[in-house]
Amino acid sequence: MTVLNERVTTDAVLAVDDLSVTFGTDDGLVRAVRNVSYSLRPREVLGIVGESGSGKSVSSMAVMGLLPNTAKITGSIKFRDRELVGQSYKQMQGLRNNSIAMIFQDPMTSLNPVFTIGWQLAEAYRAHHDVSKKVAWAKAVEALELVGIPEPVRRAKQYPHEFSGGMRQRVVIAMAIINDPDVIIADEPTTALDVTVQAQILETLLRIRDETDAAIVMITHDLGVVAGMVDRVQVMYAGTVVESGPVDELFENPRMPYTVGLLGSLPNPAMLGQRLTPIVGSPPSLINLPTGCSFSPRCPLVVDECKQVEPVLAATDTAGHYGRCHRWQDVASMKEPEKVFEHDEIGLVENPAALTAIDPTLAVVEDLGVDKRSDEEGHSS
């Protein structure tokens, strides 16, 4: 059983307790989510990070009630003390996009290409409010203006293909907030966007939070997004939470080797010209999880206990900071824990352009292309 004191939160707008999700397949039981717990207060931003396949999106789809019937869900999901696990599809419709809204990864697949942006926003509003088309259209224009889209009256009459990627993402955010939800789940909202547009999208989400008092769950694999936006962060691996805590504390003092590895793999300007430090290996199969700690096959600090007994998510040496590791105290005692992931092959120079930034005297060959004209002349002679 997961040891997590933050479960007991009386003012939580959303409380997830010991959530597990499994899928039956021909190859065996897929344990997609295992014993995930968190609580979310109004205006709070929770970040959930991890590699692809770690269970981030599946846990959020469980909250939204969007998983297929083949999924077996156990545990508890409460929205304002209302239990959502076991609710029918029709019962969830009243909550979905009204009390709890979701921003999906790909805005182009979230929007219908044959209807105008304004029509789609207005329909999302009318689905939960008994109002006229004129009132709903006005609400759609208001939502577009709220997310920072210029000329919202004109833009509402356009189609999704007439919007850029960043503008479409703003439209999806507008659709999520048009019914003033209490909780917004943002699933990789900045994927495939350039860094400038990413910053604008994140600023928009925080502004929406301030104006509507909504709580936000930010799901991402980008630690840079998490560092600048969230209040608390949960790190997921192999379907479960391996570390959680206040974002500043977790980034400065990680207590789980996997978190150390994630932070160590971030690009560092001080290491210009050197390769990133990777975590060797791949995440385990969710059908055949290893005995003991799921990270043990890749962990440089692994001992026999790690291979035999799975650690619980328990309090570490700082208030509100939890780790799922037998050796978190050893990690805490290290001055530079990220060095446990260093390998002999790391540090090889593969980018000559980066070298010139370090040593401008080095020459770089930029183009080795053949001059076709001179080559043809040589053959003709």
TrEMBL record:
Taxonomic superkingdom: Bacteria
Entry-linked Pfam families: ABC_tran (PF00005), oligo_HPY (PF08352)
GO molecular function: ATP binding
PROSITE patterns in the cross-refs: ABC_TRANSPORTER_1, ABC_TRANSPORTER_2
ABC transporter domain residues: 14-263
InterPro entries: AAA+_ATPase, ABC_Ni/Peptide_Import, ABC_transporter-like_ATP-bd, ABC_transporter-like_CS, Oligopep_ABC_C, P-loop_NTPase
Keywords: ATP-binding, Cell membrane, Membrane, Nucleotide-binding, Transport
Subcellular localization, as worded in the UniProt entry: Cell membrane
Membrane topology: Peripheral membrane protein
Family note: Belongs to the ABC transporter superfamily.
Protein name: ABC transporter ATP-binding protein
Native organism: Actinokineospora guangxiensis
